[in-house]
Amino acid sequence: MFLRYLDRTRKTIGFQLTLWYCAIFILSSLIFFVLIYFFLSLSLQQRDREVIQAELEDYLTKYQKGGTDALLKEMEENKKEMEENKFKKGVSGEDYFFVRLAGPGNNTVFLYIPEEQAKFDLKQFENRVTKGNRRWSFFSAKNDKVIYEILSYRLANDYLLQVGKTITKRKEFLERFRAIFAAIIIPVIFFGFTGGAFLSFRALRPIRYLINTIRLIIDTGKMEARMPTGKRGDELDELSKLFNTMLEKIENLIKGMREGLDNVAHDLRTPVTRLKGIAEIALQSEQNINILRETLSDCLEETERILTMLNTLMDISEAETGAMKLNLEEVNVANLIEEVVDLYNYVAEEKNISIHATFPKELYLTADHNRLRQVIANLLDNAIKYTHSNGRIDIEAFQKQQEIVITIKDTGIGIPAEELSRIWERLYRVDRSRSQRGLGLGLTLVKAIVQAHKGYIEVSSEPAAGSLFVIYFPKKL
Ligand code: ADP
Question: 59: closest CA among 148, 130, 151?
Fold first, then answer.
């Protein structure tokens, strides 16, 4: 049980982020330490070498002035002085100095090593330095505790002059530095880990909210669940907001689908019930062939209504999902409008409505001829349906830059402002229109076809004054 929990924790992003943060924190601390250590030891060595070099220069001046004798004299004097002081100031002020002069065959002519450190293998001091050259080297006492850094110089008479200094203090200082780092590495790891855990916990908070929200939706089916959003404006905040917007869209879509389905069921039930009623009455009545014929014709009419509704619904779905097949061709819009107006002239005349069409003779548009006719026919049909007798309808078509614009204007009952945005919905009908025949699918289909042609449609209306529908099509698809 515990092992499984451990395994699950190990796989979480939070834990991995913490480890990464911790690793980066420790690594950068290490790099920082190594760099400081490197430059510190380099600078300490530089200072030590400067002291040794100055000492060597002193001896060289003596040698140049008075030869080997003067050099030896200076060395003896210094030895006495050093023995008295025991210490001579170096980097730390406590380091010991070393001086040696070797004749031909590496025979030591003069040697000064502080007595306490004398356990040296003198062979170590043999040094192949060519005349006039300097060379740095290290020598250590047998117990390795004392290390000298030595500068060797071959004099003009082939003698080897060596001046050096213990680096004990330098070593001690660096050792202490390493020890301090070793002591603070544990708190560093601790801070790295807790800092990483805290940061990843904070950074992943929106992800946890996301998981909880999704889990709530899955478990309870409550689509109204939302993620809390902050004001930080970072990427995760953006993700939360987008997720909430997506949820809202899905919720609206589901609501729309439910309503749509309810409406379809409701709108289908009426004609089907009527169909059933007509058939039942026909069966109960006497076998009069004329009554039966009439009944069959009523049945046919109702069936046609149902079929039209189902076909339109399918057309809308196809157009909206992009599955509608468009037979694109160059359509002469002028001819098409004339054709549709001719078709509806009879109905319009019955209501004494005049239709005025204005368009240039040659106006072409890349579109599906039949679908475009459906669009204009539906809009003209509505205009006639929702306009009182003696009204007027104006159809216009023209080119505006790269767009073909078709407008249909009536002097009808108009649409209330609060209903304007809803008229495009499936099966939506403004209450006042219920007296007219219709399915509430015409405008939904119009919009879907226009959009399938990459166009758009706008409406403006004033109740009791009339409506204006404007369609914009790109001239070339
Ligand atoms: P319907 O079959 O009811 O005409 P539509 O989808 O074509 O369905 O139109 C939806 C609703 O928009 C109609 O019920 C009507 O209320 C309103 N409408 C559409 N065109 C007009 C118009 N030209 N004048 C007034 N109302 C209109």
Answer: 151
Query: How many A from CA of 429 to the centre of ligand 1?
Result: 6
Q: What is the mean pLDDT of the chain?
A: 86
Q: Is 364 helix (H, G, I), strand (E, B) or coil?
A: strand
Q: Which two tokens stand for residue 60?
A: 């060289």
Q: How far is the CA of 459 from the centre of ligand 1 (A)?
A: 11
Among 344, 407, 430, which residue has the most ligand 1 atoms within 8 Å of its CB, making it the best to mutate? 430
**Structure confidence at residue 117 (pLDDT):** 57
Nearest CA-CA partner of 113 in 95, 93, 98, 124: 98
Closest CA to 178 of 73, 44, 338, 33: 33
Q: Give the residue, by CA position, lying nearest to ligand 1 atom 2.
A: 438
Considering only CA atoms, give the Rg of the chain.
51
- How far, in Å, from the CA of 211 to the mean position of ligand 1? 44
CB count in 10 Å sphere of residue 79: 15
Calculate how far, in angstroms, residue 186's C-alpha sits from the geometric centre of ligand 1. Answer: 77
Give residue-wise pLDDT tens across range 447-462: 999 999 999 999 999 9
> 217: which 2 tokens?
């939706």
Q: What is the pLDDT of residue 143?
A: 66
Q: Find where tokens 């390795």 sit.
A: 144
**For ligand 1, is residue 460 a contact (CB within 6 Å)?**
no
Of 315, 404, 308, 326, whose CA–CA distance to 369 is shortest? Answer: 326
Can you name the residues that pair with 393 across neighbouring β-strands? 355, 410
